[in-house]
Structures are given as C-alpha cells and as structure tokens.
Amino acid sequence: MIDLLKTAVDKALESDNGHLDLFLRFLLGLSLQSNQRLLQGLLTQQDGNDQIKKEIVQYIKQKCEANLSPERSINLFYCLNELNDQTLVKDIQTHLSKGSLSSADLSPAQWSALAFVLLTSEEELEEFELQKFKKSDECLIRLLAVIKTSKRALLCNCSITEKQCLILTLALKSNPSHLRELNLTGNKLGDSGVKNLSDLLMNTQFKLEKLDLHYCGITDVSSLTQSLTNTKALQFLKELDLSFNKIGDSKQQLIDVLRDSNCKLSVDRDDNCCIL
Asked: Which CATH number do you get for residue 229?
C-alpha cells in the first residue's frame, strides 16, 4: 500500500496540468482506517494502517520542500487534509495570529502552507501585499498562486529582480488571472523586466487595469510602446505609471502612441518621465 501511495504522489507531481491531483486526494482518503470498510474484498491485508499513514504523511511533507510549481505544492496540502494532518497549516496559522511572518525564516513547505491557508480562507482575497512577509526568492515563488488569485498585488519596494519579474510574468501568463492592479514601484526591474511585462499585456487572458512601474530603473520602453499599439493590450489597461524612470529616446515614441485617437490612456508629463 505504501509503495502504491508513494508512486501515486510521484506521478501526480510529474503532471504539468494537474490531471491526477483529484485522483491522488481520493486515493489518499480511501487509505485511511476510517474508510477501510469501503475496500472490503479488495485488500487482502489491512494491517499497519497507522504506520502507512505516518509514512505517506512524512513522504508528502518531504515533497513539499522540493522545487515544485505553486499548483502542485498546493495540491499536496489538500492531500495532507485528506490524511487529517494539519501540523504545517496550524504552524502557519500561529505565525499569522502573532503577526510574525514579516521576520520569520520559513522553509519551502511552510511558504506553501501559507499559500494554502490564504487561498482556502473564506474571505475573498482583494489585496495581497508582499511587504507583510520576509522577502526571499522562495517567498515570491511559493506565493505566486496567491498573487494570481488576488485583485490587487502590491509588490512595491520588495527588491524584486529582473529574474524574479520573469518568474512572475510567466506564472501570470500560464493561467487566467484575477489580477486587476499590479504595483511594482521601487523594484529595479530594468529594461528586460518591462519587456516581460509588455509581453504579458498582449495576453488576452490577462485583464490588467492598472500597472505601476514608478522608479523601476527603466531606460527603454520600446517594447512597452510596441505592445500598446495592439488594441488587445489597451482593451483593459486604464492606468500606467512610469514616473521617475530615466527613459531615453523611446520616451517620445511612447507619448506619441498614447496620444493616438485609439488610445484611452491620458498623458501627463513631469521632469523625470511621463505619468500616464
């Protein structure tokens, strides 16, 4: 039985689209002692059920520490729920009640537990603020599913790098997002970061209404200009802030595009750049 369950966990984690997630949770639920009566006649040996549960719980917790996609790691916590194990979740809930997550050094599994707690909360996630948590690569990656579910993501002044910006945009591209406002103020995204975001605006499943790139170390907005010439990119976007970026020759091209009659974004200017 333990070999069967471990194999099922491994196969589910190998799936890119999560087609085995529900099956795995169903199978783990059936493995509990309380549900053994449903398997009468199918299993010839049912001894050691408690030990099986302990082993598979430990196995899943070890997998939670691995480099998993946000979706697969969240599913593992649903699996632990099926096995009636909430130790990691209760640990995170204690941190939340104490308000200590801004300074806590969490393990990858604990970050995933935090994402699970936030996603399964009864309250609709209107706003996510990364500043409330201790900044790290692991924090951002493990909470990507939460960012995608929220309507407003405040990621300002969080030391987000160009690489992390790429990870963020790839995650937002992968599935439809609820996100309507993205604030990246004060992160040194650079020109490659704004290019990734420009590509994201072209995605018709991404219905962003407000994008704040205030003071992000941007010097070239040609990629952004190109995306804004596409009517799909402008279908939802209402506000774009690029102030306090030392934009060079590409600045005027952007202003010209935004002054086009088909563009509904208003243009204002200051000494540093343009506020749109």
From this structure: 3.80.10.10
